[in-house]
Amino acid sequence: xxxxxxxxxxxxxxxxxxxxxxxATALVRDKGATSQDPPPDSxxxxxxxxxxxxxxxxxxxxxxxxxQLDDTVDAADAAVRTYxxxxxx
Length: 89
Fold this sequence. Notes:
The protein is of the alpha+beta class. The protein is 12% helix and 28% strand. It has a five-stranded antiparallel sheet with strand order 4-3-2-1-5, with no helix packed on it. A hairpin with a 2-residue loop joins strand 3 (23-30) and strand 4. The longest helix has 11 residues, at 75-85.
């Protein structure tokens, strides 16, 4: 099982449930609408099956708190920083 992504809800309470680090979370999705519903303390009814994996770092501008930030800076950001660090000259 991948660490993160949307899975068919193994509790059969919702269409899909988000798993993080292989653990069911309260984030659920029904007909494309997301909401919160904590997973029950009971065992799964079905084995979790992947619907949609979490986007890779390259596909998303969102990062997990434990991910290292990318040190690359695009040319426009570099130009703005240079302009302001040189006093606009």
